[in-house]
Amino acid sequence: MNTSIINRKKFIKYQPLLFIYKNMVYFCRYPEHIITLMKKLFFNKYFLATLIFVLLIIISKNNGIIRQINQTKEINQLENQIEYYKNDIENIKKSINALRYDTSHLEKYAREKYFMKRDNEDVFVIIRK
Predict the structure, then answer these.
(1) pTM (predicted TM-score)
(2) What is the Cα 44 distance to its own chain's centre?
(3) Is 1 helix (H, G, I), strand (E, B) or coil?
């Protein structure tokens, strides 16, 4: 392939970027052109229609972006709750297994929770204020 064709393809590929860069430099030197361009842009019927459409999408109640952001936050909170409850269920299953198969653990639980005692013991409950 000829190098001039390759260079031309590269130029065509980057031509929009060069156009934007040249216009940015031009507008930075002459700010009054920015104002006229903005006036033309805001009074363009297609721009106004697009702007209204975008605002409706952002603000609409049923499918608005704000609602979607709130729903993603809520989903994240619910996923965190799911993880918390899964861990809680695992801990409860471990304690149930410990109560079923470990008699010392069962005895400790009965003494603390239900104030049970052996026949030859006395239990004193101390209430701190």
Answers:
(1) 0.49
(2) 36
(3) coil
Tell me, what amino acid is at 18?
L
Domain ranges of the chain: 1-43, 62-117
* Tokens at 3, concatenated: 């190098």
Is 59 within 8 Å of 66 (Cβ atoms)? yes
How far, in Å, CA of 113 to CA of 56, rounded? 60
**Residue 122 backbone zone (phi > 0: left; psi -120 to 50: alpha; other: beta):** beta
CA distances from 43 to 11, 48, 55, 108 (A): 34, 7, 17, 80
Q: Residue 120 — φ and ψ, nearest 5°? A: -100, 20
Inter-CA distances, 54 with 2, 37, 93, 127, Å: 46, 21, 52, 65
The per-residue pLDDT for range 70-90, each reduced to its tens digit, is 999 999 999 999 999 999 999
Count of H helices and E strands in the chain?
Answer: 5, 0
